[in-house]
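Exercise 7. Predict the joint structure of the components listed below.
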Amino acid sequence: MYVYDEYDQKIVDERVAQYRDQTQRFLDGELSEEQFLPLRLQNGLYVQRLAPMLRVAVPYGLMNTRQLRKIAQLSRDFDKGYVHISTRQNIQFNWPQLGEVPDILAELASVQMHAIQTSGNCIRNTTTDQFAGVATDELEDPRPWCEIIRQWSTLHPEFAFLPRKFKIAVCGSRQDRAAIHSHDIGVEVVHNAAGETGFRVVVGGGLGRTPVIGVEICDFLPAEHLLTYLEAILRVYNQHGRRDNKYKARIKILVKAMGIEAFREAVEHEWAPIKNGPSTLTGEEIERARSFFTAPDYASLDASAAQNTLQAQCQNDPIFANWVKRNTREHRVAGYRIVTISLKATGYAPGDVTDKQLELVADLADRYSFGEIRTTHQQNLVLADVEQAALYELWQSLQKAGLATANIGYLTDVICCPGGDYCSLANAKSIPVAEAIQARFDDMDYVYDLGPLELNISGCMNACGHHHIGHIGILGVDKKGQEFYQVSLGGNQGKDTSIGKILGPSFRQEDMPQVMDKLLTTYVELRQAGETFLDTYRRVGIDPFKERVYAQDH
Amino acid sequence: MPRIIKNGAIVEEHGPEVLDLEQWLQSEDRARRAVVLEPGETLAPLLEHIDDIPLVLVNFPTFMDGRGFSYARELRERGYQGELRAVGHFIRDQLTYLSRCGFDAFQFEDESELEDALESLGDFSEFYQASADQPQPLFRRRA
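Solution:
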C-alpha cells in the first residue's frame, strides 16, 4: 500500500497544526460559527444530533494493521469504544469532543491517516473496488490511480469551495464494484487497441435528492492526461455549477442543464491550455504510484492439495462450509481466497465495529493476510489474501468474536446510513428498520434461497445508504413530523446500473418487515429457475409487487 | 487609504481607480485600467490585454463562493503578471489557497485582521499541486 514520504507527512502535520489553531480561535470566539463550519467540515467534523461526528479518511478503503489498531485505540480514548464504516469506505467516530479533535487528528497523522476533505463542498475521498489487485476480473489495479487522484485533490487550492461536494470513484475490472455511474466523476481503467492504459470517464452521476446515472464524457483518455482533464471538469463545474440552491448544486444538474455535448465542449475549452502542462503525469510518477501496489509475497501453493483439505474441513463442519460459500470468493492467485468479514450481525447497527473486534481483525490480518485490511462501501471488512489452508483457523477466530455472520450479498447484509439515531440531517431512523428486517428474516435458509439481494436504507434524501441503487431501497421520509418509509425496487449498482422505481405511498416503521415479506413472497412466487430478485423484477416490472403490497386485507 | 496585504506585507494602498467590468469594457484605454470581476462574469475580454492591465480585483460576495479561485488561476495560467487582489468577504483561513491560485494582494473588509491574517499565509510549506507560485507539481519535484 502507499507509504508516506517526508512530503506527505509534512502536509498532513501542517494541516493538523492549522486545524488546531482554527479550533482554538473558534473556542475563543474569534471565528464565527458560520466561518468555522466549512473549516471543520473539511477536516471531517460534523455537529450531529447528540455529539460531533468525525469522519476519518480511508483512502480507497485500504489500511494496514498499525492504522487499524490506532483507530481501535482512539475509539477507546476519545469515543465509546466502537466506530462505524461508512458507505464511502471511511471510518466514523460518533462521540468525540470538539476540543479534542485536533489531538485525534495528530494521533491519526502519526500513522499516516487524516480526515482531510471527508466532508464539505470539496473533492472527497476517492473510492474504488474493495477487491482491487486480487479480483479475477480485473484489467488493471485501480489503486495507483486513486492515490494519484488523492494527492492531486488533497488541499487543492482552486477546488476547496465548490458549489457542493464532489465524489470520484475508480474501477479497473469488468464488473463495476465501485458504482462509477453514481459518482460526480467515474473513472474506468481501460486499454486501447495498442494495449495502452487510459480511462473511460463518466460524469454527472449521483444519488441524493435527484438520482442520475452518469454519462460518458470521454471514451479514452490517455493515462498521462488524467489530472489535467479532471482539473478542466472541476473548473467548468466551479465556474458554472449552481450556487443559489444547494439541492441543484451538484455537477449532475449542470451536466443535465448544459447537455453532455455542450458540457464536453466547455471541458475541452478549459482543458486545451493546460493539457500537456506541468500537471501532465510523467511515466516516472505513474511507475512510482504503481510500485506501492505490487503483489505481496505470495507462497507458491499446491492448489489442489489445499482444495482437498478445504473440502474435507467443509464436509466435517457444515457451518464453516456455509461461511466459505457465502463470505469468501475466488482470488487471482491459486491457493488463496478473498475473505469478507460481515459487520451485519443481527442486533448490531450495520457497519458498526468495536475496538476489540478491530484489534482482533488486525491480529488476524497480520497472521493471515499480509497485514492489510480493506473497508467496503457495503460497510464490511475484507482480508484480501488468505491462504485456503488458513481459512478454518481464521473462521474459528472470527466466530468467537461475532464476526462470522455468513450473509455477504444476501438480504441481511443491509447497507444502512446512521440515520436519525445519530445524524442531524436525517428525516427518520434507519438502524431500527434494518434491525427489524434482519430479525424478521432470521431463517438463513430462506435468506439464502432468496439469492443475491441488496437492501439499501437511507434515513433521508442525502442517500448515504445508497437506497436508489439497492435492489430494494428504503428511504426515510418525514410526513407531518412522523417517520415514514418509502420503498423503491429495481436499483442496481453495476455497469448496467439502474435507479430504483418508487413502489407507492410510504409505510410506517412497524409495517416495514411485513412489507418486505410481501415483496419477497411475490418474488419467490414469480421467479423462474435461476432468476435473482433483480432479474425477476426486470422481467415482470413493478406492478405485481405493488398489487401485493397495497392489496386490501379481507 | 485602505491598508492591504501585498506581496506578503501590510501596505497602504494608493492604487488606480477601479472600474467594474461593464465600465471597463466601455473604456477606451481599458488596456491600462484596473477592473473588478464579480462571480459569474466572464474574464475572456481581459485575456486580450493580459500584458497591460495593471490590476485585477476579484470580489468574494461570501467566502463560500469559490468562483474567484478559478479566475485567479486562469489569469495566471494565461500569463497575467500584474497585481491580482482579492476583495470582499473571504477569510484569513483561505489565504493559502488564494495565494496559491495567484492572488498577491488581499483587501479585507476588516483591516484589524491584517496582522493575524499574515500568519495564515504561512500555514503550509509544501503542496501536491502545481500553483501560481510553484508551477511544478510535487510529483515533478520529489527527490
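Discussion. Chain B touches chain A at residues 39, 63-67, 69-70, 73-74, 77-78, 91, 93-94, 96-98, 100-101, 123-131, 135-140, 142 (CB under 8 Å).
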